[in-house]
Amino acid sequence: MSQAKENAALAALDFVEDGMVLGLGSGSTAEIFIEHLGERVAGGLKIECVPTSQQTADCARENGVPLVDIDRVSGIQLTVDGADEVDPMFSLIKGGGACLLREKIVAHASERMIVIVDNSKIVEKLGKFPLPVEVDPFGVALTAEQIYAALRASGCENGQTVLRQNKEGTGPLITDGGHYIVDCKCELIPDPAETAHLLDRIPGVMEHGLFIDLSSVVIVGEDDHARVMELKRE
Ligand code: 5RP
Fold it and tell me: pTM for the full model?
């Protein structure tokens, strides 16, 4: 286990309060957070959690973290999730674990989103990590062409699209929501808001991995400590 991820996950526990409904992100860093959350629950912390993937739900159950159906909560106070890239404005690329649609639904519904990453995820400009886009299987080739056009029109250096395959190598990866993932090799995304805007207009796109203006706190794990960075949003 990476000590940097562990330090970021531990620091995020300070933001959790009794009585909260929490959104639980997906991925290895989020799972470390869930493991520690389980220890706090065993110690008496009272929370209810909304998972953003099947894998996260399984991890929460294994660690004794109580889950609640997203349709049964009246609000989510805090979501803690990982990311694949974080820029200076806390714009993110997410979806490396193929959970971006549910992650975005939960983050958007939350009063606050905290991102936990190790320092390798901090970048000046987004785009080196291939941008995941969740698409409907119907017409996927046409949708991929439109995605490529949108990326180029918004100034991305590249835009080559690749349909993500499942681990077994037997076909396209299917998300928890029954969709495909198209990974886009952008190299550089000079204007994430414009790219997001153009992708949002493509009917076959269920959601994309650009998370803009959603998180106000980023916790960066280093080998021996964690840095908590906060952005004041109007
Ligand atoms: C899943 C995600 C993850 O949060 C992201 O891929 C980071 O994962 P990890 O913590 O394993 O590096 O967006 O869809």
Answer: 0.97
Ligand 1, atom nearest to 117 Cα? 10
- Expressed in angstroms and rounded, the spacing between residue 38 Cα and the centre of ligand 1 is 20
- Phi and psi angles of residue 112, each rounded to the nearest 5 degrees, phi first: -150, 140
End-to-end CA distance of the chain: 37
Query: What's the CA-to-centroid distance between 119 and ligand 1, angstroms?
Result: 14
Distance from C-alpha of 17 to C-alpha of 27, rounded to nearest angstrom:
23
pLDDT digits over 5-59, tens only?
999 999 999 999 999 999 999 999 999 999 999 999 999 999 999 999 999 999 9
Shared-domain flag, residues 171 and 95? no
Domain shared by 20 and 80, yes or no: yes
Q: Based on the structure, what is the number of domains in the chain?
A: 2
Q: Judge contact between 131 and 188, C-beta under 8 A.
A: no
Give the list of residues 6+ apart from residue 51 with CB closer than 8 angstroms, or none: 24, 26, 57, 60, 67
